[in-house]
Amino acid sequence: MRMNDSRVETHDEQQNLNEILLVRREKLEKLRQEGKDPFEITTYNVTHKALEIIDNFENMEGQTVSIAGRIMTKRVMGKASFAHILDGSGQIQIFVRINEVGDELYQSFKSYDIGDIIGLTGVVFRTKMGEITVNAQDIILLTKSLYPLPEKWHGLKDPDLRYRHRHMDLIVNPDVRRTFIMRSKIIRGIRNYLDNKGYLEVETPILHTTAGGATARPFITHHNTLDIDMYLRIATELHLKRLIIGGFDKVYEVGRIFRNEGMSIKHNPEFTSVEIYKAYGDYYDMMELTEDMIVTIARETLGTTRVMYQGVEVDLTPPWQRMTMVEAVKRYTGLDFSVISTDQEAREAAQKAGVEVDKDATWGKVLNEIFEEKVEEHLVQPTFIMDYPVEVSPLAKRMKDDPRLTYRFELFITGREMANAFSELNDPIDQRERFMEQARLRAAGDEEAHMMDEDFVHALEVGMPPTGGLGIGIDRLVMLLTDSYSIRDVILFPTMKPKE
């Protein structure tokens, strides 16, 4: 088994591990024979956290505290020992002396292993070396660790092992803990921002009878009682729009989305999004909301709008650049789709640009293909790309002046899509026709094409007001604000192929 980037586990290392596992189990058995089984303990009274003591030392010095955590380091020196324990807030040093705890407890402490979880009561002080420490007066083993932590001089660096054993990753890599604390703050910031703007948080189904709201391949499952196949949702969009139709003017949902597609540093089969809908609004309203919300969250979590991402500074200071897709393609390829009018001319332009397209690709499809292959990578600073072709926007309202395009934008930062928004299509006749075209593509073999959704069309027939809708990929936003290279670095338990 690969242990980290630079080492491969050897036979000797495996044998050494087996010996460690055996010794730890023998220690547990001895404790049980002595009536000291740590797994029988159900609770421990913790009065303070490590960081709380360190941050408030001036007020805490000399006070008696009870703390609990995992032993991370241990240095035994005859009749006195130092150790560091890790709790949910961070690490703190402890000092254990035979004179304070007595011979029996001290001998027990000496037998504890790195990774064991202990509780202790003691007095807060600062050592001669200046480190804030708890001088133990009483100590107890709360949990026996039967499997060793990665060696501190090697650590847990191999990405595959880190993602598979996130529990150990969180224990030994403080930066990983900070990333996920930041993730929680970002999600809380999104909720606070939207709540303060009068949006109502709702929950919609994860199991759908029709996979809709995006062009993506769904996961399929089976409902035994109803004896029907169902799909894990690929978007929350269509149910949230039903709520707009039902009379809720502002709604949002933070939720898990599932797409049975490829995996990369930007893609995980399950990810988290926030979708936001506002009645009597349009994609310009969503553009302003996107910009203001992300800037607000960056300021609240980082204290700045200048973010370093993988060695490149990204300036989130508003206003952000806005370009139509036609303008962006012209700027970065020289191809002017405002004067290219036929499908054949578009396909010839793609060939000239070195972009491969289907022999029957339409003007809009070609425009989008060229944009994705030749333009996206250049959009490092925040940029709204507006007015997408109707062929790739089956749920967005057509532009009045050019029905080949829709009132849709996507936000790009660091060359990646961060947000997607529409002036939502509320014409049920047009929506049915677009669903039928998507169904034709699906029948022709396009597994990502949208399914016909008669129930949603019926809802539109009841009447949906003009509406602006927005979706933001939370994982990618967290990647940006935490300078994380891969989406797996910001998902606690990313999808992994099982080991044999």
Short description:
By secondary structure, this protein is an alpha+beta fold. It contains 16 helices and 18 strands.
3D architecture notes:
This protein has 500 residues and is of the alpha+beta class. The chain has two domains: 11-151, OB fold (Dihydrolipoamide Acetyltransferase, E2P), CATH 2.40.50.140; 174-320 and 381-489, BirA Bifunctional Protein, domain 2 (2-Layer Sandwich). The protein is 35% helix and 24% strand. It is built from 16 helices and 18 strands. It has helices at residues 11-33, 50-55, 57-60, 98-101, 103-111, 159-164, 166-172, 174-196, 237-245, 283-302, 325-333, 343-353, 363-374, 428-443, 454-462, 474-482, and strands spanning 64-77, 80-86, 91-97, 117-126, 132-143, 200-201, 207-208, 220-223, 228-232, 250-258, 270-279, 306-309, 312-315, 321-324, 383-386, 408-413, 416-423, 467-473. The strands form four sheets. The chain has an eight-stranded mixed β-sheet with strand order 6-10-11-18-17-16-15-14, sandwiched between helices. A five-stranded mixed β-barrel has the order 1-2-3-5-4. A three-stranded antiparallel β-sheet has the order 7-9-8, with no helix packed on it. A hairpin with a 4-residue loop joins strand 8 and strand 9. The model is unreliable at 1-7 (pLDDT under 50).
